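Run log, item B.
One chain of 245 residues. Sequence copied directly from the ordering sheet:
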Amino acid sequence: MRDLLEAGVHFGHQTGRWNPKMAPFIYGARNGVHILDLAQTVTRLEDATEFARELSGSGQQILFVGTKRQAQDVIRNEADRANMPYVVTRWLGGTLTNFQTIRLRVDYMIELERREEAGQLELLPKKEALKLRDKLTRLHRYLRGLRDMTSLPGALFVVDVPREHIAVAEARRLNIPIIAVCDTNSDPNLVDFPIPSNDDAIRAVRLLTAQIADAAQEGGMMMQSAVEAEESYEAAETAEPVAVD
């Protein structure tokens, strides 16, 4: 609770900028600013981290989404740490609902990277090589975080629901669960695991995103341990018996 207070998680928007559906999560108001109920933040965060841990432990990915300036670096760094995909520049329409097309663009990006690393672009006319490098730069800008997402994610983690409304709508259309940091201007009914919190303060965004990333990382480690244990068991079962004189 103290960490949440120090990070400013409890500060919502001005009282004139709110969504009435967030009323159950609001403790009160101070100087024209809504104050969130941190007891509910703690409870909702626990639910979200447990879900993230179980999902990751089952081998599924969580797509981290945060394109606002305050969230970009945090989302990128924490998703990388948890080996999860992310979107931090602009959500491309169809990222989920037209995933196969998006995946073809990611594969093309990877192919251009391979050609660049192999020195193949150096063999092309300068104008053509420059054109391909510019194209690779643009692909990196929008798709770098999706390179290891080879199928639809098991869930989304979103910072700022109103801003990421297209991502939220696509996930809802495909019945993909959504974990989201919900400030007082959000509609918590649009997501499965709303975490009431300030979504503008960098410290608040970092604290909550790190909690979800930690849970995802723990789930991944649990899955890896289970796989290794099963492989060891199978190896022992198939090992030839030692002859005894």
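Observations after the first pass:
- The helical segments are 2-6, 38-57, 69-81, 99-117, 126-143, 165-173, 202-238.
- The chain has two domains: 2-93+152-229, 97-150.
Flagged for discussion on Thursday.
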